[in-house]
């Protein structure tokens, strides 16, 4: 499990996270939601180890501050919001970068993993394309395939691996939103863990096991989506009175912007 | 499930060209890159030999080889004068050309990887000017301030001074152009111009202060030339260049990851700060050593890696060795032109690389504007 306790982060002199505590268990899809500027990405970056922070972050019981970058890379992979590249790499070359971490496997094996990862993000046949010529959503999926390759086994040596995703579906069409969310779910079902920053509350409610609602650099509510997505929480966090409803089947909560009052 | 790519790999009987083609369609350029490196090795050797044979004195390859392997009767084949010309003039010149060309092209490639941009080049963004400043500082103020330095380091003093000049410029530039792990190209280029101008101004002041003898020592820095090549220069700059070239292959995987940004490289397990430190020191060292022995030779560092990326892609595992080979070859070739185009006079080689490189650089700019964040 990834455990962030009492995280505080200062960005250019200003404290933007105030003692945030987040837990993400293996086998679960943990979604972080909240308004713009509520500290979602900052929390994820701190948990990824790329930002200096006060507090502690541990992954499977290891303090990440004590781990070497390559040790950390075998326990978690990160999908950033968007990645701009100034060199003409092919999709295959980008995806295989994820495979260069850790122990050497034979060429046939790495080829197979890279191909399967591209297939998992619905980009079979894109291996020979140039990354710079793809659309934003396609580039996003290439990066996800690259991150997947890095922790191809959700459980390695008995230890679960974690995927940290910063808005994985924000630039995707509805079909691929479902593809990627199902992919994240299946990673959890195979024993890994996922932390995803999400904006689409309804998609989150459909797929997440745990929902962490942030506001102003603090965790406002955390728990199962059914418990977090309530009229009261919605108004408190987003400052906008809305009606939360439930689907007839499966009872996932949903909220429509149409219900906003005032 | 059907994989059209998989069937492509099954036919063992298919020709090498067909395999290269199917690799290309799958986005795999590694076999092509290996082939190109092999070809470049052959061309580099051929160019080296051609360079030793080219010039006013008559020395054919056969005669030179016969003399070098010490075959009988060779003493008569090559006159003593020809032997001196080859051993003390042409050979050091070719060796220096190979070293400096390789060093310029590789430091260009490393710097472009470090700044995540194909326009970064030591000569273009002021690192060479900084290195020149270091060298000029040593020459002009040498006797009064740096006497002990000469005493300790001997003929290494000049490359070391140039190294520190280059290092200071690179560090400054990186600090200015990179904010929270992302490099702004515009800031990098403009800051490079400013730093280069500043180094140039200080160099100007020093030249103003210099006496006649020092002036003669200084003149060739501005132009860039291999004309003064001798074994002493090779001994002073060669080891520094060779060490930084030897370090660079270990940076390849990290530089690949770094193209996705500093954070992404860290996510992929790269110790980013260490990578950057080693890359900066190696660029400064090889640029400094090259500048110390041959002055500012521009455009090799930007043209060579760029051409290679068009053919074999940006994977640094192949790009770096290929850059070393092509850079060395091109500089020897440019030097052959420099010393034969207006006989008996010699054109500074920097003029030739600028004539070929500057239009090419403009072409890169116009062609790839959208991909470079400009």
How does the SSE layout of this entry go?
The complex is a heterodimer of chains A (262) and B (374).
Chain A: E1 2-11, E2 14-24, E3 29-33, H1 40-48, E4 54-59, E5 62-63, H2 69-73, E6 76-79, H3 91-97, H4 107-120, H5 136-150, E7 155-156, E8 159-160, E9 162-166, H6 174-189, E10 193-197, H7 201-207, E11 210-215, E12 218-223, H8 225-228, H9 231-238, E13 244-246, E14 253-255
Parallel strand pairs in A: 3-10, 3-11, 6-9, 9-10
Antiparallel strand pairs in A: 1-2, 1-4, 4-5, 7-8, 11-12, 13-14
Helix pairs in contact in A: 3-5, 4-5
Chain B: H1 4-10, H2 16-25, H3 30-53, H4 61-68, H5 74-77, H6 80-114, H7 127-145, H8 147-153, H9 157-177, E1 178-179, E2 182-183, H10 185-209, H11 212-223, H12 231-247, H13 252-258, H14 262-267, H15 272-294, H16 300-312, H17 316-340, H18 349-368
Antiparallel strand pairs in B: 1-2
Description:
Chain A has 262 residues and is an alpha/beta fold. Chain A has 2 domains: 2-75 and 154-259, P-loop containing nucleotide triphosphate hydrolases (Rossmann fold), CATH 3.40.50; 85-150, no CATH class. Chain A is 32% helix and 27% strand. With 374 residues, chain B is mainly α. Chain B has a single domain (32-368), classed as ABC transporter involved in vitamin B12 uptake, BtuC (Orthogonal Bundle). Chain B is built from 18 helices and 2 strands. The longest helix of chain B has 35 residues, at 80-114. Chain B is globular, with a radius of gyration of 22 Å. Residues 1-11 of chain B have low confidence and may be disordered. The A-B interface holds A 45, 48-50, 68-74, 76-78, 80, 83-94, 97-98, 100-102, 115, 119, 124-125, 127-129, 132, 143, 147, 150 and B 1, 3-5, 24-29, 116-118, 185, 253, 256-257, 259-261, 263-264, 266-272, 309-310, 313-315, 371-373.
């Amino acid at each position: 499990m990834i455990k962030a306790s009492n995280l505080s982060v200062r960005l250019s002199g200003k404290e933007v996270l105030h003692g945030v505590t987040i837990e993400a268990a293996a086998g679960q899809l943990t979604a972080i939601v909240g308004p713009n500027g509520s500290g979602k990405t900052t929390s994820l970056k701190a948990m990824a180890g790329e930002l200096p922070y006060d507090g502690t972050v541990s992954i499977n019981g290891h303090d990440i501050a004590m781990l070497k970058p390559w040790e950390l890379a075998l326990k978690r992979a990160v999908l950033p919001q968007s990645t701009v590249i100034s060199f003409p790499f092919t999709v295959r070359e980008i995806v295989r970068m994820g495979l260069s971490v850790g122990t050497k496997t034979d060429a046939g094996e790495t080829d197979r993993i890279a191909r399967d990862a591209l297939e998992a993000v619905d980009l079979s046949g894109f291996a020979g394309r140039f990354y710079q010529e793809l659309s934003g959503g396609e580039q996003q999926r290439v990066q996800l395939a690259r991150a997947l390759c890095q922790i191809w086994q959700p459980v390695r040596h008995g230890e679960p691996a974690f995927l940290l995703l910063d808005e994985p579906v924000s630039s995707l069409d509805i079909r691929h939103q479902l593809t990627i969310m199902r992919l994240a779910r299946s990673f959890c079902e195979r024993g890994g863990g996922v932390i995803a920053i999400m904006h689409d509350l309804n998609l989150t409610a459909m797929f997440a096991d745990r929902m962490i609602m942030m506001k102003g650099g603090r965790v406002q509510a955390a728990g199962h989506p059914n418990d977090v997505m309530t009229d009261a929480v919605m108004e408190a966090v987003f400052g906008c009175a809305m009606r939360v409803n439930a689907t007839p089947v499966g009872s996932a909560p949903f909220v429509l912007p149409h219900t906003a009052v005032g | 499930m059907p994989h059209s790519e998989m069937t492509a790999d099954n036919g063992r009987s298919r020709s090498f060209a067909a395999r290269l083609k199917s690799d290309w369609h799958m986005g795999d350029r590694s076999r092509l890159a290996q082939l190109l490196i092999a070809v470049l090795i052959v061309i580099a050797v051929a160019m080296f030999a051609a360079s030793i044979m080219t010039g006013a004195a008559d020395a054919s390859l056969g005669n030179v080889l016969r003399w070098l392997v010490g075959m009988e009767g060779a003493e008569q084949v090559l006159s003593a004068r020809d032997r001196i010309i080859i051993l003390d003039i042409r050979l050091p010149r070719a060796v220096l050309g190979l070293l400096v060309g390789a060093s310029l092209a590789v430091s260009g490639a490393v710097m472009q990887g470090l700044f995540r941009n194909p326009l970064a080049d030591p000569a273009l963004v002021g690192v060479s000017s900084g290195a020149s400043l270091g060298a000029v500082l040593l020459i002009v103020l040498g006797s009064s301030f740096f006497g002990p330095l000469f005493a300790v380091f001997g003929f290494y003093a000049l490359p070391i001074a140039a190294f520190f000049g280059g290092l200071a410029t690179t560090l400054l530039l990186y600090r200015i152009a990179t904010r929270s792990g992302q490099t702004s190209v515009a800031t990098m280029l403009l800051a490079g111009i400013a730093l280069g101008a500043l180094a140039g101004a200080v160099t100007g002041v020093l030249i103003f202060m210099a006496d006649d003898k020092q002036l003669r020592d200084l003149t060739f820095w501005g132009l860039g030339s291999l004309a003064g090549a001798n074994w002493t220069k090779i001994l002073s700059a060669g080891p520094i260049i060779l060490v930084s070239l030897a370090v660079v292959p270990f940076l390849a995987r990290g530089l690949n990851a770094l193209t996705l940004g500093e954070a992404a490289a860290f996510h992929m397990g790269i110790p980013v700060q260490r990578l950057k430190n080693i890359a900066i020191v190696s660029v400064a060292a090889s640029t400094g050593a090259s500048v110390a022995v041959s002055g500012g030779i521009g455009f090799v560092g930007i043209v060579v890696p760029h051409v290679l990326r068009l053919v074999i892609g940006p994977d640094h595992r192949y790009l770096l060795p290929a850059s070393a080979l092509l850079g060395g070859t091109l500089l020897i070739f440019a030097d052959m032109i420099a010393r034969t185009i207006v006989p008996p006079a010699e054109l500074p080689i920097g003029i030739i690389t600028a004539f070929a490189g500057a239009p090419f650089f403009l072409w890169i700019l116009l062609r790839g504007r959208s991909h470079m964040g400009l």
